[in-house]
Specification:
Strand content: under 5%
CATH architecture of the largest domain: Orthogonal Bundle
CATH topology of the largest domain: ABC transporter involved in vitamin B12 uptake, BtuC
Radius of gyration: 21 Å
Distance between the termini: 17 Å
Shape: globular
Helix content: over 70%
Number of helices: 14
Number of domains: 2
Number of strands: 0
Largest sheet: none
Length: 347
């Protein structure tokens, strides 16, 4: 009976948080002299108004889900892996490098694509390992180390696009030379989404769910995240678990970068990460770091991102209004959770 009451209380606070977020975003729209209801309708139509539009949502959902999956591991370990953006970028760079090296070889396109995925995972892990090393052995906070590595990754991407990997005769902000279609992930007929991308995303979050909810590794990782010193005194090798958390997050971020190259852009572009790392942080915070809700909430955020493209086209509004709603939603949920906990403590 107490559990049922607590569940209904949690649901009430979550619904109140959604109302607050919508109210705040609506106020912003009113100040911008726009009709909030029309804006929300356009976002819905722009995201699920047709099969093609929904496939675009799924294209954004897969890398966002992979980034969120990796972040759930580092958050569980009590680590703020802000460097996930750079890890996505390095995954894309390593995938591009592998495809450039192998595209003229005698290997089959399928094998080259698999190698591209593995290279992307390796690139993400390598970049995450630098942040881990700085954190564990250099005493550098992972937030500052990660942000620094993000800037380096962005600079490296620009250098490659305008330097060694530039298009024949010209460097272009549109990216490197596209790969031949045999090295693109196959898509559903007439749509942009690849079934293999969906498989990678779904398998990824399933692995993270099982790892965090059903293994001793996940249990010990939670102990490290709750109280690192107490976990160490209980015999848990905290350093190894911190390394494992960073490397796993880097692996999933690298896979997100590989999906961007193999399944979306088919080349390396300057903004290859598309902000999915930072957006993944919002998703992870909104679901309170519980993998159960990662897939549907990431899908909702992807729909907001794609649907908001309609706003500048139809209403002459900036598409970043979806970001206002996403941020307001996370802040409102955190605020309501704090209020709920304070009320419970008083009781």
């Amino acid at each position: 009976m107490v559990k049922a009451s607590s569940r209904w209380t949690n649901l009430a606070f979550q619904l109140l948080a959604i109302v607050l977020a919508l109210a705040f975003t609506s106020l912003v729209m009113i100040l911008a002299k726009a009709d909030p209801l029309e804006a929300y309708r356009n976002i819905v139509v722009g995201s699920v108004g047709s099969v093609n539009k929904f496939s675009d949502v799924l294209v954004a959902w897969v890398p966002l889900l992979l980034a969120t999956s990796g972040l759930l591991v580092t958050y569980t370990a009590g680590l703020w892996n802000i460097g996930v953006e750079g890890q996505i970028t390095l995954g894309a760079i390593f995938t591009t490098w592998a495809l450039r090296v192998l595209q003229d070889s005698t290997l089959s396109p399928g094998l080259i694509i698999v190698i591209g995925f593995l290279s992307g995972a390796l690139g993400g892990m390598l970049w995450a390992s630098v942040v881990a090393f700085l954190k564990i052995y250099g005493g550098v906070n992972e937030i500052f180390g990660g942000l620094g590595m993000n800037f380096v990754a962005t600079a490296l991407t620009i250098w490659l696009i305008f330097g060694p990997w530039k298009r024949p005769g010209i460097g272009s902000m549109s990216g490197t030379e596209p790969f031949k279609e045999a090295l693109w992930l196959p898509t559903f007929t007439g749509l942009r989404i690849s079934p293999w991308s969906l498989v990678v995303g779904i398998v990824g979050i399933a692995v993270i769910y099982l790892l965090l909810q059903g293994t001793y590794f996940g249990l010990k990782l939670k102990a490290v995240g709750r109280n690192r010193r107490a976990a160490f005194l209980l015999g848990i090798p905290t350093t190894q678990y911190m390394w494992a958390a960073f490397l796993l997050c880097g692996l999933f971020a690298g896979l997100a970068g590989a999906v961007q190259v193999l399944g979306v852009y088919h080349r390396l572009i300057p903004s290859i990460s598309s902000g999915y790392g930072f957006l993944g942080m919002l998703v992870a915070m909104l679901i309170n770091y519980q993998p159960t809700w990662a897939a549907p909430v990431a899908l909702f955020f992807a729909a907001l991102n794609i649907g908001s493209i309609q706003l500048p086209i139809v209403m002459k509004l900036d598409s970043t209004l979806s970001g206002v709603l996403q941020g307001a939603l996370v802040l409102a949920v955190l605020l309501m959770d704090g209020v709920r906990q304070r009320i419970l403590r008083r009781r």
